[in-house]
Amino acid sequence: MIKSNKLDYTKIDYSDGGSYEGGMLNDDKQGFGILKFPDGKKYIGSFNKNIIDGVGVFYEKNGTVLLTGRFSNNVLVQSYQVSDYTMYTINYPTGGKYVGQLLNGKRNGEGVYFFHINKKEEVHMPHMGLTYNYTEASLDGTWKDNQ
Fold it and tell me: What pairs with residue 71 in β-bridges?
C-alpha cells in the first residue's frame, strides 16, 4: 500500500449515523475535525492518526458541554474551568475562524485559528516526506490577549 502523505479536507457519513468532517491523512483523521456520534453527541477539536489529541470539546446531544480541554490519546489530560475560560467558535467576516477559549473578549487559553485560503494550495515538505493539500491554514496553541 502506497501512502499519499497528503492532508485533505474530507466529509464522511458513516452507516451507523455518525459522521466526520475535517482533515484526513492516509485514511486517518488528522488535524482539526468534527466527529458526530450516532447518539447525537459530538467532538470538535484536534486529531492525530485517528486519535483525539489536542484541544477539543465534547458536546451532549442538546449542545451541553460534557468535556473541554486538552486531550492526549483519547483521554482528557487538562480540563479548563468554564467560569474562567469558555470554548467558543468565532466566524470572522474575512472567512477565518477561531475555535477555542476566550477571556475578556480576547483569544486566551487553548485554541485554533483558521485562515481561509481562496484556492486549494499544495505545500511540499520534502524534509518530512510530506505534501499537504489545504484550503485553510491554522495556528494551534496557547493564546494570550489575541497573540
Answer: 54, 76
Burial of 15 per CB tally in 10 Å (0-12, 13-18, 19+): exposed
Residue 4's alpha-carbon distances to 27, 40, 113, in angstroms, are 10, 32, 26
Whether the Cβ atoms of residue 62 and residue 39 lie closer than 8 Å to each other: no
Residue 85 grid cell: 475560560
Cα 62 to Cα 77: distance, rounded to the nearest angstrom: 24
- Distance between CA atoms of residues 5 and 17, nearest Å: 28
42 touches 60 (CB < 8 A): no
Which tens digit of pLDDT belongs to each residue from 25-46?
A: 888 998 778 899 999 998 888 8
CA 109 to chain centre: 15
Q: What is the pTM of this model?
A: 0.58
Q: CA distances (Å), 42 to each of 13, 26, 65, 68, 111, in order?
A: 14, 23, 10, 12, 18
Could you state, in chain order, the average pLDDT of each consecutive group of 10 residues for the chain (147 residues)? 61 94 85 89 88 86 83 85 56 73 75 64 51 58 79
